[in-house]
């Protein structure tokens, strides 16, 4: 089963502390993973879980992606839509996302991104 995550603000101070809390969404379409490639327009995300039953429901949704950095600053939140599913080693899958808008170019800091969490945008 793919873990589901959402970020919750702890306070409204200048530096906002965050914690990751599990949530449950229909069709198991929330996920966590690691970045394999990142550009201004696309992110390739390797899912943490091995061989989920079906990734087809992913292709029908828009997602909030949260890049969790190893540094102490708060995560970057952006919207993206999956455009392709690629195979990866060890029976894991790689989701290719296209960003709606990414305000900065984060490819220079890809090594400091420790995790990516995706939560479907609900209408």
Characterization of the model:
It is globular and about 35 Å long. It is mainly beta. The protein has a single domain (5-120), classed as Thrombin, subunit H (Beta Barrel). The chain contains no helices and eight strands. Residues 1-27 have low confidence and may be disordered.
Short key terms for the protein model shown above:
0% helix; Thrombin, subunit H; 123 residues; disordered N terminus; mainly beta; single chain
Physical arrangement of strands within the biggest beta sheet: 3-4-7-6-5-8
Mind summarizing the main beta sheet?
6 strands, antiparallel, barrel
Return the domain count.
Answer: 1
Number of strands: 8
CATH class, named Mainly Beta
Percentage of β-strand residues: over 45%
Which CATH architecture would you pick?
Beta Barrel
Q: Helical element count?
A: 0
Provide the residue-averaged pLDDT.
Answer: 64
Low-confidence runs of at least 5 consecutive residues: 1-27
> Which of globular, elongated, flat, extended, rod-shaped describes the shape?
globular
Radius of gyration (CA) equals: 14 Å
Distance from first to last alpha carbon: 24 Å
